[in-house]
Amino acid sequence: MRVPDADLFNPQSVMDSDFSPGGASASASVDPDFGFAFDDSNFSDRTLRIEIMPDLPETKSDGGGCCSIADWARNRKRRREDFKKENGLFCFVSKIKIIDFIGQSEEQILNCNLPYTVDGVTYENQDEEAMAMVEESPSDIGLNSNQIGNDSIYNNDSSKNMDCSKVLRVKTIHISSPILAAKSPFFYKLFSNGMKESEQRHVTLRIHASEETALLDLLSFMYSNTLSTTTPTALLDVLMAADKFEVASCMRYCSRLLRNLPMTCESALLYLDLPSSVLMADAVQPLTDAAKQFLAVRYKDITKFQEEVLNLPLTGIEAVFSSDDLQVASEDAVYDFVLKWARTHYPKLEERRGIFATRLSRVIRFPYMTCRKLKKVLTCIDFDPELASKVVLEALFFKSEMPHRQRALAAEEANATYRRFVERAYKYRPVKVVEFELPRQQCVVYLDLKREECTHLFPAGRVYSQAFHLGGQGFFLSAHCNMDQQSSFHCFGLFLGMQERGSVTFAVDYEFAARSKPTEDYVSKYKGNYTFTGGKAVGYRNLFGIPWTAFMSDDSIYFINGILHLRAELTIRQ
Question: What's a BP term from Gene Ontology annotated to this protein (predicted)?
Answer without folding.
Answer: response to red light
